[in-house]
Amino acid sequence: MSGGAGKGGGKGGPGSGKNSSGRGSGARELGVRLKTARGRTHSSQLWLERQLNDPYVARAKREGRRSRAIYKLIEIDEKARLLKPGQRVLDLGAAPGGWSQLAAEITDSINGRGKVVAIDLLPIDPLPGVDFVQMDFMDDAAPERLREMLGGPADLVLSDMAANTVGHRATDHLRIVALVEAAAYFAVEVLSPGGAFLAKVFQGGTEGDILTLLKRDFAVVKHIKPAASRAGSSEIYVLATGFRGRKEPTPD
User: C-alpha angle with apex 31: 27 to 34, nearest 5 degrees?
Assistant: First the structure.
């Protein structure tokens, strides 16, 4: 979730049965407290304790996935059926690669049937069936590079990007809005008719702006809050389906 892109995941398996909550064999017992914080800041101490007590983190490790974020996409896809064999999928903010991994498995780009293109400011380990470029999505050259890599219109654009924050609420809000809007505008440029767009936004103003933008170009626009999102997190996902097609400007 880096400033120009970022995320995590992998295909955790919709049919994980009793272990779907992260509890069960191999899961760390909840309620772990670190005995010492020597050498750590208070914020890093809290983050580490949260990681140790997160059932989705335990499940990701147990199932060999790259991060807990995969379970957000799995839950959303189980409800919306976004991913299908043979699709072209664009993953904005791919690190550490979980959403791309899931897309590659379901689209079957691993076997050359579909195509998955991913971008992030941070590097990711190579993934079968995924064409990755390490680049800031907000770079002026990024859109054309992604179009070339796609080789045609996309069926689905995913964005789990999160802007780098500076701790100033108004400034951070503007950065978040700019990043999500850039992803939405690019999705409109590269999607094929009937395509879909899924993006992370944050409650508190950003999501309203994006809804207005997307309702113009998509048949159905709604919010989704996956169970795998951390408790107390303000993140929420906007899902736009039924892309109406790009509207060419009318001549004067």
Answer: 105
Catalytic residue ranges: 200
Residue 19, both tokens: 């272990």
Sheet holding 191-202, edge to edge: 130-134, 115-120, 88-92, 154-159, 191-202, 235-243, 218-224
Instruction: Write down the domain spans for the chain.
Output: 17-63, 70-243
Is 15 annotated in a binding site? The answer is no
Q: Is 136 annotated as a binding residue?
A: yes
Fold of 70-243: Rossmann fold (3.40.50)
pLDDT, tens digit, for every residue of 213-222?
Answer: 899 999 999 9
What is the value of pTM for the model shown? 0.77
Q: Is 120 annotated as a binding residue?
A: yes
Helices (H) and strands (E) in the chain, counts: 7, 7
> pLDDT tens digits, residue range 171-192?
777 888 889 999 999 999 999 9
